[in-house]
Specification:
Helices cover about 50% and strands about 15% of the residues. It has about 775 residues and is an alpha/beta fold. The protein has an eight-stranded mixed sheet with strand order 14-21-20-15-19-16-18-17. Belongs to the etk/wzc family. Belongs to the CpsD/CapB family. It catalyses: L-tyrosyl-[protein] + ATP = O-phospho-L-tyrosyl-[protein] + ADP + H(+).
């Protein structure tokens, strides 16, 4: 068994499809109209031919034929002149550039199109024109599109018409034709003038013509690994289209060749300028090096530097020796001056012969004195004589030491000066060497640059005169044998599809914008309250449709179905009090009350109508009774008894009318006597049908809710708005009304939204023993 959701989904889909099928005639009419439009379009539209060609952007074969030239250029950095390295995609952009297209437009005068009338369409002619046409004396910066009608007349005259400029003039052939934007010059190409023929000349700006050319032209690589490009072009005239595409390729190749020559010429001019500048710079560097050598007496800077370092080292060693000698002699002088010191060590490194001799004699006297002292006393003349000799020798020794010390000091100062001079000269060597290296580097650099520029000048001359093309044409422009656009089958298919889509979209949009309920699926979308009955449209003026002269009408059968469903809904209730209400007036609440009560009375049950729409009572008049009769308000206010207020209106049908008009109906409904009224009615009648006011306008129905067991809520086909179901759902969810069931009134069973009813009567039976069982909601 399928779920309820699946069934509802099927119903919605079937209702939608049925709605589309109901308007089948709209689809047929739209389909035929669009097919006719497609036919007219094909007759009026100018056919387009497809022109194709192939171009190779890098001619490897051509370069291999000039292998020696290209190899020389590649090895020496000038390959960009012979073997362009630009990205292929960039070259495709150049092929489809606006500048190149404009050159083609100017060369072929594509901004002027001449056509003739051929049936419903105007077709361009080319190649066999009897005249030539040119534009002169442009009077505006940007020419706007103009179409002129030319007609050749007798007497060598021509008539020119243009509706936009209000131009209609006759001129002699070859005579200038003045317009607001330019002048037209028409020149016959033969002796015979085509008298009586009409031509249509369209003039546009060159920029616009270039844009149109590019819009109809495309270029793409034949393969990701190849450099060949397929060009595709659409044009209404096959011969002229081939010429246009061929001219486009020729202009591209010619422009590339011119660009290569311009690049080579520019390179030559630059190289010659640099050669002249570098030659002057090289001469200046060489003169500077020559002056530097002469002023610094430099022959071989390396050898001269070695000699300076050697001399400086030698004098440095000599200076150290002198310092040692000077230090030793100072120590000796200090030692000799001390009387406590006797013998002087002979091992001291004193490099002076006279000093060494005096020192030896002094030590010999001291030794002799010490020997004699062992044999003589201090007062012995021998010892005294030796002591005097020793003192005299010591004085002489000190004098020699002082002389030698001064000699050492003078000698050390001289050696130090020489050493300092050599060190200064050594310190100047890096600077001179640096200057020398700088001069040498500049000389080498300028010389290399000069040789390099001479080489590049030869390369540029070779490249300029080498006939190596960066692109070549593989397939020349060729048009298709027949027009490729528009394709009749595609146009007819599009027309047929539009003929179906447009009415479908219109009907679907109409359905989406619809605000009122007109199908069973609408109710299922906006509420899950059970639909207890569906009542067909009542085409009669009489409100009472049950028991009239059409007992088997669809409306009557709808109320019988409602009666059966109501019976099963009330069979478990303690009493059978039913309130009939709606959201707003006009939804058929009173009509539903009258006929539902009548349908119940036909089963032999006693039915009483309680008219509680106290503000606008209509139930009495619908039953054929006077509206000004006593009723509910009179009973509540104790004017009459309930028994006297109830009046019979038909077999088993009775009415408790609204009664005398009251200014406070809500307060009357809240009166405690109302409960007694309903209690007495339950005791005397099988069914109590309450006609309440619309719940969406006043709150009376919410007050009546406490006295009833079930609420029949009326919605009307093509009248109740979808947004009202929010209010209805709120009433149910907040339990503001007793057990609620929906009844759909004024249903058009011919509408595809109510397809579920079989046998033409609107029954909604399930196969369960021939009876309809009302599905209860889970509370």
């Amino acid at each position: 068994m399928r779920s309820l959701a699946e069934k509802e989904k099927d119903k919605s889909l079937k209702a939608f499809m049925a709605n589309m099928l109901k308007h089948w005639y709209v689809f047929i009419v739209c389909f035929l109209v669009f097919i006719a439009l497609a036919f007219v379009y094909l007759k009026r539209t100018t056919p387009q031919y497809e022109i194709k060609s192939t171009i190779m952007l890098k001619d490897e074969k051509g370069m291999s034929e000039n292998k020696a030239v290209t190899s020389f250029a590649n090895d020496n950095g000038l390959s960009f002149l012979l073997n362009p390295s630009e990205n292929v995609m960039n070259e495709i952009k150049v092929l489809t550039s606006r500048r190149l297209a404009k050159e083609v437009v100017q060369q072929l005068k594509l901004n002027i199109v001449v056509a003739t009338q051929n049936g419903l369409r105007v077709e361009e002619i080319y190649g066999d024109l009897p005249f030539d046409i040119n534009i002169a004396n442009a009077k505006t910066d940007s020419i706007k599109e103009r179409q002129f009608e030319l007609e050749f007349l007798d007497g060598n005259q021509i008539r020119v018409k243009n509706d936009v400029e209000d131009l209609d003039t006759k001129k002699l052939v070859k005579e200038k034709i003045n317009t607001s934007q330019f002048d037209l010059l028409i020149q016959p190409l033969g002796d015979k003038i085509p008298v009586g023929n009409k031509y249509y000349v369209t003039v546009i700006s060159e920029n616009e013509a270039a844009n149109r050319l590019l819009n109809n032209c495309s270029a793409e690589l034949t393969d990701k690994t190849a450099t060949t490009v397929n060009l595709q072009f659409y044009y209404p005239n096959a011969r002229r289209g081939e010429l246009i595409l061929q001219t486009l390729m020729d202009r591209y190749i010619l422009n590339n060749q011119d660009q290569k020559i311009r690049m080579a010429d520019s390179a030559l001019v630059f190289i010659d300028q640099r050669l002249e500048s570098v030659a002057g710079e090289l001469q200046g560097v060489e003169l500077g090096l020559e002056k530097f050598r002469s002023s610094n007496q430099i022959t071989d800077l390396t050898e001269q530097s070695k000699m300076l370092v050697g001399n400086a080292s030698e004098y440095y060693n000599r200076l150290k020796d002198q310092e040692i000698q000077l230090k030793s002699i100072k120590n000796l002088e200090t030692f000799v001056k001390d009387p406590a010191n006797n013998r002087i060590p002979s091992s001291m490194n004193i490099q002076n012969a006279s000093f060494q001799s005096s020192l030896q004699q002094y030590n010999a006297l001291l030794l002799e004195y010490e020997k004699k002292k062992l044999s003589y006393t201090d007062s012995n003349p021998v010892l005294i004589n030796l002591k005097n000799q020793i003192d005299a020798e010591r004085s002489n020794l000190l004098q020699n030491i002082g002389t030698y010390k001064r000699e050492l000091q003078v000698s050390s100062e001289g050696i130090g000066n020489l050493n300092k001079r050599f060190n200064n000269q050594i310190g100047q060597v890096p600077g001179k060497e640096r200057q020398f290296v700088e001069f040498s580097r500049q000389q080498a650099l300028k010389q290399q640059l000069y040789v390099y520029l001479l080489q590049k000048r030869e390369e540029a001359n070779i490249a300029r005169n080498a006939n190596v093309q960066s692109a070549r044409i593989v397939d020349f422009a060729k048009s298709s044998n027949s027009p490729v656009k528009p394709l009749p089958i595609i146009i007819y298919m599009m027309g047929g599809i539009l003929g179906l889509i447009i009415p479908f979209s219109f009907l679907n949009a109409k359905e989406l914008l619809r605000t009122k309920v007109n199908s069973e699926s609408d109710i299922g979308k906006y509420t899950d309250i059970e639909v207890i009955g569906k009542i067909s449209h009542n085409s009669q003026d009489n409100q009472l449709v049950i028991g009239n002269n059409q007992p088997n009408s669809i409306v009557s059968e709808g109320f019988r179905s409602l009666r059966a469903n109501l019976y099963y809904a009330l069979q478990s209730r303690p009493s059978n009090v039913v309130m009939v209400t709606s959201t707003i007036k006009g939804e058929g609440k009173t009509f539903m009350t009258v006929n539902l009560g009548k349908a119940l009375s036909l089963t032999g049950k006693k039915v009483v109508f309680v008219e509680l729409d106290l503000r606008k009572p209509k139930l009495a008049s619908s039953l054929g009774l006077s509206e000004n009769i006593i009723g509910f308000t009179d009973v509540v206010q104790n004017r009459v008894s309930l028994k006297d207020a109830i009046v019979p209106c038909d077999d088993n049908c009775y009415l408790l009318a609204a009664g005398t008009y009251s200014d406070n109906p809500s307060e009357l409904l809240l009166d405690e006597r109302v409960e007694g009224i309903f209690k007495e009615l339950r005791e005397n009648y099988d069914y109590i049908i309450v006609d309440s006011p619309p719940v969406g306008l006043v709150s009376d129905a919410l007050i009546i809710k406490q006295y009833v067991e079930m609420t029949v809520y009326v919605v009307r086909h093509n009248y109740t708005k979808k947004e009202q179901f929010d209010f209805i759902n709120e009433l149910r969810d907040k339990n503001k009304l007793s057990e609620m069931y929906l009844v759909v009134n004024d249903v058009n069973f011919r509408d595809p939204g109510y397809f579920a009813y079989g046998y033409g009567y609107g029954y909604d039976y399930e196969d369960q023993g021939g009876r309809k069982w009302l599905r209860k909601k889970n509370k």
